[in-house]
Amino acid sequence: MLNIPIKDHFRETRLFNARISVIGVIVVVLIFSLLLRLAYLQIFAHRHYETMSQANRIKPIPIPPPRGLILDRNGVVLAQNYPVYTLEIIPEQVDDMNSLIEELGHVVTLNEADLKNFRKQLRDRPRFESLVLRSHLTEEEAARLAVKRPYFNGVELEARLQRHYPLTGLGAHFLGYVARISEQEQDRIDKSDKSMYRGIQDIGKLGLEASYETTLLGQVGVEKVETNAHGRSLRILERIAPVAGKNLSLNIDAKLQAIAEEALGKRRGAVIAIEPSTGAVLAFVSTPTYDPNAFVGGIDTDSYQRLLKDPDKPLINRALNGQYAPGSTVKAFLGLAALEFKGFNANQPVLCPGWYTLPDSSHVFRDWKQGGHGMVTLHDAVVQSCDVYFYKLAVAMDIDGIDRFLAPFGFGKKTGVDLLNESDGLLPSRAWKEARGAKWYPGETVVTGIGQGALLVTPLQLASAMSALANQGVRMQPELVHAIVDAKTGAARDVAPVVDSQVPIKNKHDLDVEIQNLTDVVHTNRGTAYNIGHNAPYKIAGKTGTAQVKSVAQGQRYSESTTPERLRDHALFVSFAPVGDPKVAVAVIVENGGHGGSAAAPIARKVMDYVILGTSPAPPKNATPESENNE
Amino acid sequence: MDLQRLHLDKTLFFALLALSAISLFVVYSASAKDMSATLGHLMRLGLGFLVLWLVAQVRPEILERWSPYIFGAGMILLLAVLGIGVIGKGAQRWLHLGILKFQPAEVMKLAVPMMLSWYLARGNLPPTLLRLAAAFLMMAVPAFMIIKQPDLGTALLVFGAGTFVLFLAGMRWRVILILLAVIAVAAPFAWHHLHDYQQQRVLTLFDPEADPLGTGYHTIQSMIAVGSGGVYGKGWLNSSQAHLDYLPESSTDFIFAVFAEEFGLLGSLVLVGIYVFIVARGLLIAYLAKDTFTRLLAGSLSLTFFLYFFVNMGMVTGILPIVGIPLPMMSYGGSSIVTVMAAFGILMSIQTHRKLAE
């Protein structure tokens, strides 16, 4: 600070002011040149750039890739693409929209819905975007329009690929469908990578179409096109070809799917067939089904309301999201617990008087058989589905013991099938109830022994649990997709089977005994499913179930004939076959169907017959030529 | 509200406010109506005004005393970026400080003019050749380090800010002429040291049509946007060049093209007018400043702001090569808004503390 020379302030200020002035002049000159440039571009060259901007521009046109096909295990096409002609308008290039639409009305038919939809787009979308006025033009309309189009400015005839499900409702619940990208989905796409969906209008909404969206999608190509003043393409400067989406080859057998759907008929229900050794899902049925094609081009409000208001709820995926009390089918698994659980002696017969009460309680838990089964062994209890035996087992195991035993079978959690939004089911425990601020009552343990109460399973969980029993306790993750196939090269990448969980079995002999008991359910004349076993050429292990929908008051009995249809019991059946070398595990549920043995078991038998014997009664409706050739 | 007592210069403050308001509409349109981007821009502006206000509270004497330390810290950070800097956008510019990503080159936009003003104010003006040489090193070394990152745009601004200080300090005309002659001779050598893409950008300027889908693409699409806007513009949200994705970087470096397309020549005149008004106000503050440090610093910061928007607009209208310089206050993203607002904070501090002292 000391050696700062004495400053001549006056001189410095004058110097600084001179420099500021010089630079001020330079700034003014530069700004002036910038303004001149702007004036040149925006006034003198305006027409030139206007033309370039409007029409004579290099237009990158996205080429949407064909979406991957979905095929069943035999190559039957379940989802494909076919071209539809659409009439599109670019509002920016139209002088008088009303008269244009009126004139177009003479060329193609335009109904109220088309016009309403178009007016809405006209309000919401930018003026330079191509808007659909009419889709699904007939060949004749397309031809007429192609001839007349040069007289209309801003009108385009486009051929677009649209998704089509040739077997209509078959497998709709696992296939899902594609439909127009919604605003929320568009926002999500814009945030990740806009270019992925450029030129693509549809996105997978449900089922495999949604869960394998990125696989099926493919890569958008681009064509850089020089266009003239009317927006017509003059020449292609550069082209990057789109890459087709990958095909899905499924484990599903369309014929089996059709057999199972037909067996359920008009009844509400679900059928799942799984190959126990791999987890391959062979059939995935939920009825009633619906036509996914209706959603592809955008479903109209009336049809959608009809589907929503249908009392049979066709849009619900019962196989994946239907959560049912398993009823007596749970005995197929608890029967093994009786052998394995230390605190229970399975060698000691139990007296079944037809009812059961807890000590210090007057509440009566009835057996389904009035008067009871008398003295029953474990074998009798499983074969005849004795409730009292399993009440006692449940009390001995306690709810936490049941919870621990059933968990490895996959109850109470997602099976991990390759579909989105799978339901969890519910495996109750003391901790679960207490977490909800309630106390667990001993009576709840009792009814869990026969698959009633809080315990809930999805048909997929039941089939998966049954396949674990068939597969020495190893539970494979259910998989719908067998392989992902490159459409061009045919190179297939197999989806590897995944071990989901291992049921701890202390003594292998116990499992053999349990499977023998289940076999006797089907093949001995006292068994509850003897009606399907007496003439079967192979051995089936199975268990029937009848789950209450409406609780029956103390001192009364359930009567099917006096109960309204939708409050009647659900019929269930779980099974696998052939015993010794299981090829398929099946779970069937028929809502309000009555008895498992009479309503559900015959459906499972048809499924098993097809898988094991190869008999195929009737070809699926609307079958493609390929599948008919396979007869 | 008495802005003077908050140490805010009313004229400058309202001009900045007007610019901010316009920028929100332009960012909304240029980002294809992305509300979250617009809100993000608003947040940055808010942060910028906060920084402006905080800096304006610091007395110029304190700024002067801190200048060498800020410069020293900036140099250390620059070294750190060269050493351990992480790769961001293909270039080493960012320094991760925990959750914060930080661009040390931004600091130098302020630290270099502060340092030079401080140094030259310590001697008589015009500076001696020796002092001039020392001052030159103080700006050239950091600028060179920023080029190495490589970030040509920021290096240009840092070098410009330093040059303005030297010029305003009264560097003699004959020295200036000799330097210009040296640059003319050295230019061909420097040319070979530019990256390929940088060379291409300069060549494109002379003939953008030579490679319309390659390096010329930016310039052509930008000029189409500006030119097609005409006198009155296409109207807000109607920039087809941006919305049809012809114009790259539409919400960042090329946002002025979107503005000019939507609001035309009239809009552009208003916008350029506001920018020029801000520069003029800054130069007036420099003119009124009472001591060497503050007048050099205020002059340099104002002129750097001019350089900032002039280079950007020049690049958008195709009279300057493409260097990565955003339009200050307008362009979406980056940390430049905060730096620019800090610079205005310094200007306001210089203006208001002088007034209060009187």
Cα-atom radius of gyration of chain B? 20 Å
Query: Structural class of chain B, please?
Result: mainly alpha
The multimeric state of the shown protein is heterodimer
Largest sheet of chain A at a glance? Answer: 7 strands, mixed
Give average pLDDT of chain A, whole number. 87
Enumerate the spans of chain A where pLDDT stays under 50 for 5 or more consecutive residues: 617-631
Largest interface: A-B, 43 and 52 residues
The percent of residues in helical segments of chain B reads over 70%
Short description:
Chain A is an alpha+beta fold. Chain A contains 23 helices and 23 strands. Chain A starts with 8 loop residues before the first helix and ends with a helix.
Question: How would you characterize this protein structure?
Answer:
The complex is a heterodimer of chains A (631) and B (358). Chain A is α+β, with helices and mostly antiparallel strands. Chain A starts with 8 loop residues before the first helix and ends with a helix. The model of chain A is unreliable at 617-631 (pLDDT under 50). Chain A is built from 23 helices and 23 strands. With 358 residues, chain B is mainly α. Helix content of chain B is 71%, strand content 4%. Chain B has helices spanning 10-30, 35-56, 60-84, 104-121, 129-147, 152-168, 173-193, 196-206, 216-229, 240-243, 255-288, 292-316, 336-357; strands at residues 86-88, 91-97, 100-102. Chain B has a three-stranded antiparallel β-sheet, with helices on one face. In chain B, a hairpin with a 2-residue loop joins strand 2 and strand 3 (100-102). At the A-B interface, helix 1 and helix 2 of A face helix 6, helix 9, helix 10, helix 11 and helix 12 of B.
